[in-house]
Design a protein that fits this description.
By secondary structure, the protein is an alpha/beta fold. The chain is built from 14 helices and 13 strands. A 5-stranded mixed beta sheet has the order 2-6-5-4-3. The protein has a 4-stranded antiparallel beta sheet with strand order 7-10-13-12, with helices on one face. Strands 1-11 form a two-stranded parallel ribbon. The longest helix is centred in the last third of the chain and has 23 residues. Strand 8 and strand 9 form a beta hairpin. 37% of the residues lie in helices and 12% in strands. Helix 6 runs parallel beside helix 11, helix 7 packs across helix 10 and helix 12 runs parallel beside helix 14. The radius of gyration is 22 Å and the shape is globular.
Length: 449
């Protein structure tokens, strides 16, 4: 492989940290962009935010037990939280609860999976999955055949990606696959390291890649890698490569190219495409992602990286993910299913949330969110505006630091400066549980100009 020197688009690549939804450890790195835990949104503060909500719940006897997870809202009771009225929410809150919409923990999806019941339940006997190996005949020898089959089936059902003439490489979430792709595409004997997302590079301290800046400003000769995140995170826009120079290699992060977020307009057929269960079905805790890779040698090197990094990928997680993907595909069969189509249900959820947010923004007068054009979705058979998993909120008037301003109103967000933009912008997760999200939009609407 030719010697590769740097490039990644700042807007596209910085988006990667969120498209990959790296862990709380990675989130802590956003403040200092080094591997330490001194950021303003440290793990301790995340816990305090969660515990504040839990203590409030305990005082009001709303629930008998508290799910002590690093989520922004307590675990739901069997009845849907969306049934709460605005008065109920206000009486529970009192304006004191810290609302954390900084991270993209996809607990919104719990409602659908509660409706489905035990259809995704699997039982794994103690004797099963003991070996490191899943299929020694496969290039990716730790890929479970059942998971591979359901990946192919789901892409065919939705029509968002071509799987023919692609190898499937499974990873522990998109974070590992992203690193594997950079490893596979980087020359081992290059005189200069290849570019990468800065925080990850600083932590890994690999000499194979480094951060090189904004693709729109890239004007160097020679090979490069450009990461295209589409739909983009955080603004939800559809992206294409922008460099278009000779010697370029493209990696397409399509984590959000699913019909609950954006219209499916064509089946993607790129050389290297990244997907993740956390964004497609909401099962972030399963820690499973996959890459569709055309080039056999690149797929082999990605497999080798994962072998060196974690000696494969959890079989238990793959089997669970396979069952989840099967239920999703079954629910959307043209012949009909007793369950509502997963993507119809979640598309409606996202549509409702975006309407709520736009109403809150309009009522407040202090904020704005992007307007994106509608496109026809070949899967849902109708046109709709993009409804991203994150809102790109701008503070208007003379508010220069939107993150600090909202923090003063006990709303935790992520500043635009982490994405190479003005601090007048913040990124807001749209994927929290109904109770927390409804509380957020209500409080936002009361911050008046």
């Amino acid at each position: 492989m030719a010697k590769i020197t740097p490039l990644f688009s700042l807007k596209n690549l910085l988006v990667v940290s969120l498209a990959l939804n790296v862990s709380l450890i990675w989130r802590a790195m956003h403040e200092s962009e080094k591997c330490n835990f001194d950021s303003s949104f440290s793990l301790q503060q995340q816990r305090r935010s969660v515990m504040a909500g839990c203590v409030l719940k305990e005082k009001e006897h709303v629930s008998e037990r508290t799910h002590l997870s690093l989520s922004s809202s307590p675990s739901p009771s069997p009845s849907p939280s969306s049934s709460l009225t605005s008065t109920d929410i206000q009486s529970q809150d009192g304006g004191e609860r810290i609302i954390n919409v900084d991270h993209g923990d996809p607990t919104m999806y719990e409602k659908y999976w509660q409706k489905v019941g035990d259809k995704t339940t699997i039982v794994i006997p103690g004797w099963q999955s003991l070996s490191y190996f899943s299929d020694v005949r496969n290039l990716c020898w730790f890929l479970e055949p059942e998971f591979a089959k359901e990946v192919v089936r789901l892409h065919k059902v939705v029509g968002n990606a071509i799987t023919e003439n692609h190898h499937i490489v499974v990873g522990t979430g998109s974070t590992q696959l992203f690193q594997a792709a950079l490893y596979a595409l980087s020359s081992q004997d290059a005189s200069e390291p290849i570019s990468s997302y800065p925080s990850i590079t600083d932590c890994v301290k690999s000499r194979l890649y480094k951060w090189a800046g904004d693709a729109k400003r890239f004007n160097k000769d020679g090979p490069y890698i450009e990461l295209v995140t589409s739909p983009n995170n955080p603004d939800g826009s559809v992206r294409q490569s922008v460099v278009n120079r000779s010697g370029g290699i493209l990696v397409h992060d399509l984590a959000y190219y699913w019909p609950q977020y954006t219209s499916i307009t064509y089946p993607a057929d790129h050389d290297l495409m990244l997907f993740t269960v956390s964004k497609s079905t909401g099962h972030a805790g399963t820690r499973i992602g996959w890459a569709l890779v055309k080039d056999t040698e690149v797929a082999k090197k990605m497999t080798k990286y994962i072998e060196l990094n974690t000696i494969g990928v959890s079989k238990d997680s793959q089997l669970r993910a396979a069952k989840v993907l099967k239920v999703v595909s079954d629910s959307c069969k043209p012949s009909g299913s007793e369950d509502e189509c997963f993507f119809e249900f979640t598309n409606h959820q996202m549509s409702t949330r975006w309407k709520q947010l736009r109403m809150a923004v309009q009522k407040s007068g202090l904020f704005s969110v992007p307007e994106l054009p509608s496109q026809f979705c070949t899967f849902l058979g109708r046109a709709f505006e993009p409804q991203p998993a994150f809102a790109w909120l701008k503070c208007e008037q003379e508010i220069e630091d939107c993150e600090s301003f909202l923090k003063g109103n006990k709303i935790l967000t992520r500043s635009g400066k982490h994405f190479g933009f003005s601090p007048k912008y913040v990124r807001i997760s749209m994927l929290d549980r109904d109770e927390n999200y409804n509380l957020f939009v209500q409080r936002l609407s009361k911050i008046l100009s």
